[in-house]
Structure formats: structure tokens, C-alpha cells
Amino acid sequence: MPASAPDQASAADQTLAPQLPAQSDDRAASTNDIVVTGTRITSSGFNAPTPTTVIGEEQILKNAQPNIFTTVAQLPSLQGSTGANTGTFSTSSGSQGLSSFSLRGLGTIRTLTLLDGQRVVGANVTGVPDISQFPQLLIKRVDIVTGGASASYGSDAVGGVINFITDTKFTGFKANVQTGVTTYGDDGQVLFQAAVGKSFANDRLHVILSGEYAKEQGVGPGNFGEDLAGSRDWYRATTLVNTGIMNNGSPQYLVRDHGQAYQYTKYGLISAGPLQGTAFDANGQPFPFQYGSNGVPAKDRAGNVNGCFVGFCVGGDQSGHVGSGTSLQSAIQRLNGYTRISYDVAPDMEVYMTANVAQVKTHNQPNPGSAKTGLTVQCANPYLPASISAACAANGITSFQYGLSNAILPNIRVNTDRRQYRFVGGLKGKADLLGTNWTYDTSYEHGINITDIDVDNISLTGRYNQAINATRINGQIVCADAAARAAGCQPINIFGGATPSAAALAYVTPAAGPFQHTKQTQDAFAGSISGEPITLWAGPLAVAAGIEYRREFYRVNADPYGAGVSDISPNSTLYPADPSLNSVNGSNWYAGNYKNGTGKYNVLESFLELNLPILNSDTLGRANVNAAGRATRYSTSGVVYAWKVGGTWDTPLDGLRFRAVTSRDVRAPNLSELFAAPVTTTVPNFTDPRRTAENPNGRQVLIIQNTIGNTALRPEIARNTELGVVYARPKWLPGLSLSFDYYKIKLNDVISSLSAQQVVNLCLVDNIPDTCGAFDLDSDSKFVNVQSFNLASIKTDGFDIEASYQWRKPLGIDGNFTLRGLTTHVIKYVTDPGLPGTIPVDSAGANTGATPNWKWLVTESYDNDAFSITLQQRWFSDGVYGNQYVVCSAGNCPVSTSNNPTIDNNTMKGAFYFDIGGALNVTKQVSMFFKVDNLFDHDPEPSPQTNTGLDVNPALYDTLGRFYRIGVRARF
Q1: What are the residues whose beta carbons fall under 8 Å from the beta carbon of 208, sequence distance 6 or more?
Q2: Does a structural domain hold residue 260?
Q3: Among 140, 269, 588, 780, which is most buried by a count of CB atoms within 10 Å?
Q4: Does residue 553 lie in a domain region?
Q5: What's the domain of life for this entry (predicted)?
């Protein structure tokens, strides 16, 4: 909403952002609206009690990132955001390359992201938008409200609000061209941006157009073993190995480099039985596998290895390791077009329309090949070397257990294509009512996001199992199963590195790979007013009120192999009948088994916000109370209320202000949680825990597990409290601003998922009625519905420190020096699963997650008319792998438990990154710039896993290394 000019000062005081001189046309800056995101009130001189951090246009330019998302995500209060460097190990999540924010570590679904104060259609069924689809060149400021804002802005604002403010009155032309590459020669980047704005009809009609193209080539994948992309050498397959020891005084878990999964190798390994330990080289010749830890295969049916740990050895032959083959960063390509047309119907009345059409395409490799373990191979397989066939006979076996990385198969590639079509129309302005000036703003937004996910080179599990079961008929090697042969089965040799035939690959990895087509729509109407109806003893009473309506809808369609259909038949040329496939329930792919689904809900809400000045005195200072309430009716869960109460006190001491606010905030369940596309699987040997005389320990039954949404979910409810002090622009040092804010958040009814066994046990064993309606174990068609429930809770607290100092003409030298620092300290972040037998876990300081104890960002910059130079430091503190672990050494360990396991090492180092950038003004309109991120090429710390994935945490650590960027900017 528009605000009067004095708000500029109050906004700057509130956010502590230095107001640097604009490098460009002052006409644009002078006509722009000033929006204070922490409140819906537009009263002059009003200070909202909610802390707000601002990233201005100058800082955005100096950071020189190809995506503004990266600049914002560097802030210490943002923890757990997702981008192109996260989720690259995933095939089925649908979030690859999705740029979305997480404040306070509460997750992307609990951070509300706005564009010019308005909602944006989700780019994922969780409802989060993709920042890559925003018109980035026109963004003049980003406001980050680090506190609950549901009363002002509605659902999802539990962690806070991030509001991108565009230059709605931009006039002139500007462009940006830049390129970049890592020190390892990968992730090559190009970015082209241009925008033009012009006024017509005596400045009443204003038109803005912008467009941009960006491409980042991504990083990786690497190869099998420990060979990362480029010449990076930091990957060591660090593994959290389980000794299996619980009570002999030794630690249960050991942190070890070069972990080796002993169930498979690159070209195949006999993993159990009398031939265990026989591996195959690229030529298909057998050789004794070299186990790490001096392991010796037990040659039993369970496949144990003496001298090793549960599932892992340390060292030995690492050639089949798959973790290093994961992309370190998804490739991403952005196309964005934006226009805004506005017309001043009257001097204080503007009608406007915006259109934003964007496309973001990404791709990544989750891992090389597609590792298989526990395969049963017949000794009569004609591809098997004669020596192994003879060994089978000598040992009296007809089959053996086998595992391989499947290096013979093409590598999996996940491709995403997100397209956004967003249109907004509105009317805003000022009007006099009963002698009082009011601002008003009405808008309607219609957004569509279409996401297509296609997975290449992935196998159908049933067909793969048929293809590796070969036999010889009339001298020719064929698939052993006659029905599979009739369906087109072609045999595959899995002993060694022989490339399968084109026909075999077409059968096992058909071109019609997994795909998912999702359409999401959002329709949102909003209308609000703000004014000062009366003047009281300490100043005018300010009021803001409004009503909003929103409708969310999604539909997802997936391929029949994954989703399952009843009409996969001989009449289908694309999906012919095949006995190896489950035509009804689907889930036939190695990974990427997407499902069909649909859902919708609507929201009607109204809000009222008041600012009551209570003190205005030269002796006692100025003080105000700010309060807001919102009533919201969700079509799925009924009515819920949000509110906030806070205030500020400008003390009579020069520059000193106190602020405090407490709020009740909400997050409604999203489309995915409510209407998840169903997944059906058969679960044999499921335990019915009810004890009878016949079955004193319960009974084993076969069930159908239905993974579904839960339309009975309730909104999550949070209590958010913040206390702060600001010392800004004292007369003795007007360039100084300091603030300290303590926050505390308690989130109840957190939506979390349960396993089928947990669903049943909670009802029948623990007598918790929430899950009793989700299963039936007494009828002939026994089933368990696996859903999300409102069971968990989260408690977190900490504090933020922000400081800035601006020194004009330092030491008499023309120019400006600016120092700014932001720090967040997470004191605790406790998650209680809400399940019997579990205990709350504090993840503050666990660097395997997203909430280190300390995190800060510091920038120093010097600017004059000729050039600028900027230094930036990013740091987070040392931490642990998990606070639940008990550190001990052999002979001194207590009993290890599931809630508090013992471990030999629980230290995970933090990281310090140093960035440098600068610009040279060639003319008043054109400048050249450079930026180097991670100047000292600091490697990430390993994040130990208990599997064979990529042992790194990209949510905290820089996984790419030193990065160089150069470019040219122009503005006329």
C-alpha cells in the first residue's frame, strides 16, 4: 500500500539499513511508494514493533548473483532455504532447483513470500513459490520480517514474511550482463537482464517492461568411487558406522572416512553364501573383493562380514561407491518476462495491471547407475563365468545373493520445467472521508503454475529382474521367463561392464520414463484501507482493515507405470500388457513413482490493525501500542484466529528505542498435506499388536498400505514473542545504528508423518484416538492409511544483532564507507515428535541440519563517483552431528539407547567464507563489475551419513568452491 513520504525515515530506523545515494535517476526514487512490511498501517512516522531487515538495491547489485534468491538466503535469520544446490540427490521430491526461503529454520512452508505485498502462486504442491520466477531486475528492496506476521498477512507467516518490493514507477532504461565460472571450470553462468519504463499522457500512463535470461550449467555429476566433479578432492565417503555394540563400554557409532558398503560393487559382488566376496571386474572376470577394515566374509546366508560393522567396512575397494556421482548443483535456466501498466484516473487514484510470465528449467543427477542389492541370481545363468558355475556346483548351491552399482546402465537424470503465468489487477490511492485522508488498495491476482517432471534413464524394477534372469534356448541367451519374453524381454549381462544391447535398454529403461504433470492455480482478492480517523492525546489513532479471499487448487497426473492404471493392456502401444508390471497400483520404477491426485480449498479472512499512540512527551519520549487481529475461515478446517500485540517506546535518551511484540500465528495445512496423491503398497508380515491367548505377541498379517492426504488436519498454531532494543542515529554519531532482538517461538499441532506401524500402535497400544480411524485390521481387506497428523511441536529461541555504520567522506576522502553486520544466535531448537517412546531433540548447533548456534554476515564497502569496493564475510560456528549423541571412548561408554546413542566423535566444524567485489564507473551510465565468492576456496565439512549418499550439507556449506563473476551494467 502507498505510504506518505515521512515513512521513509521510520522504515530506515526500523530496519537499520543505510540509505545510500542512488546511482541512477532520482526521478524514479522520488515517486516510489514506501512500504513498511511489518505492518498494514501507513501512518506517518509510525514505527512497527516487529523487527524488519532490509536488503536494498545497492546490496543486491554488489552481491552480483545470477539469482536474487542467493543474496537473500545468505542472511543469518534464513536457515534451511532450498535452491539449486539442495535436493540434488532426490528423484521423486519434485523440489529440485526450487528456490524458496525458510526463516528461523522452520521450513519453507512456514515462511510467507510476497511480491509487492501480494501472494504468489505456489511452484510446488506445498504452496511455496519459486523466487527464480520473480522479475528480479525491477526489485528495489527486499523486506524480511523476522517474526510472526499472520495477523497482518495471513497463513504461513509463522517464521516471518519476505516481501519483494518492485520499482513500480521506474523510468528510463537499464540492463545487466554478467558471466561467471568456478575455479574448477564448471557451473558456467550467463545472465542478461533489461528493463524499460516510460510515462505517457502527461505522466498519467506509465508502462514498464522487463525481461531476463539466465543459465547456470550446474556442477557434476562426479564418478563412481570418491571422484567428485572437477578436481575437487574433499569427498571422503565419511560414514556414521554402526558397531552394533550397545552395552560393553564402547561407542555404538563411529565417524569414519572412506566408508564402504559391502553389499555391492561397481560391476557386481556375490554378497552372501559360500561364494561371498567374489567380485567381477569390467571384463566380467571374478576376483576376491578387497573389504575394508581387514574384513573377512562370513559366507553365511545373512551376508555378514567379520571385522566390519553393520552394513559397512572402512577403506578397501571404493570403486563402487555412488555418493560422489550426485550433482553438486542442479543446472538451471530462467526466462522471465514482466510488464506493469498503470494509469492515474485521478491525482490520487491509480489503476494498474501486471503480468509475469516465467519459465525455470532444471536438471540434476541423483546418483550414477542404479544400485541394486539382495538380487537372487541363478547359477545356471549363461552369462556367469564357468569358474563360478563350477564353484556353485562344488558348494551345492543353485543360486546366490548379488549386488552391483549398475554402472552398465545409463545414469539417471531428473528434468524439471516450471512455468508461471501470473496476472494482477488493482486500484489504489487516497480519498477523503469525513475530513480524514484514507489510503485504499484493492487487487485481484490469478496465478497458474505448471510443473513437468521427466526422469530419463530409469529402470522398471520388474523388467530389470526379468532381464537379469537369463537362460539359453537353442544356443541363444534369452530371458528365462516365457511370459516376459512374449512381452519383449531382452537379457542383460550383469557380470562385469558389458553395455546392454539397445533392445535390452529399451525394455528395461523405456523412453517413456517417469513423468508428473502438475497444474496449480491461485485466485486471490484483497481489499484494505488505512487511515487516521481521530486524534488522541498523544497523536492520531491509526487504523488498517481489510478483507481477503483466496482459492487454491491443484491437479497432478503421472505416467501409468508409476501411478498405476487398470487399462495397461495389449491394446496400448505405449504401455502394453506385461506380467512383470503392477498395472493397478503402479510403483514399477526404480524411483520416481509419481501418483495422480487433485485437491482444492478456499480461504475467507478479515483483519483489523490499530496503532494507538500513548505517549508523546519531550520528557518521557514517544510510545505506541500496535495490535492486530485476523479471523480466517478455511473450507477444510473451519475458523481460526490470529492476533498480535506490541509496542515501541522512543525514550528521551537520544537514539534509544525499545520494542516488543507477541503474536498468535497460524499455518494451515497445504494442498499436499490435505490431498496427497495416493500411493498404495502391499505390506506382508505386518504386526497387529493386539495380544490374544492364541497370539500373545500379536499376529502377523498382510495389509494394504494407502499413503494419502488427511483432510481432517488442523492448522498449526504458534506463539511468537520478540523483545528488542534499537540505538539508531544518535546525534553524537549519526551514521551508527544498532539493534538487539530476542525471539521465542512455540509451535504446536505440527503436521508430521507416521509409519503404518506407528499409526496402528498409537491407537491400539498407546490409546491415542487420533489415528484410530485410519485403519481396519478386522475386515477381509485389511488396510492402514498412512497420513499426516497434528502431533509434533517445535520450540526455538535465540536473538538477532544488527549493526551498521555509514561514514561520509572518511578521513576527508570523497565517497562513503559503510559497515554492516548481522548475527543470529540460535539458543535452542527443540522438536518433540509427540510419539510415545521418543524424546524431544534439540537441533540447535547440529551442523548436519540448518540451525547452527551462531551465524553472521558482515559487509564493508567504499563507494565514490569513480569506483566501489565491497568485502563480505560469511561465517557459522562449529557444531555437532546431533545433540542426542553421548560422546565417549572405549571402556567409558554408558549403555547406548535409541534416544541417546553413544558416539566416538561429535564435532562438526563450521565455516568462514570471504567474498570480494568491486565496480568501475566507466561513465555516469555504465559500470563494469567483478565478484569473487569464497575467495580462499574453503572446502565443506563432511556430514556423516549411515548410507552411501553424498556426505555433505549444502544447506550450510559451500559445495562449489571459489567462484568468479564479471559483468557490465548500464542505466539511462
Answers
A1: 138, 167, 168, 170, 195, 196, 197, 338, 339, 340, 341
A2: yes
A3: 269
A4: no
A5: Bacteria
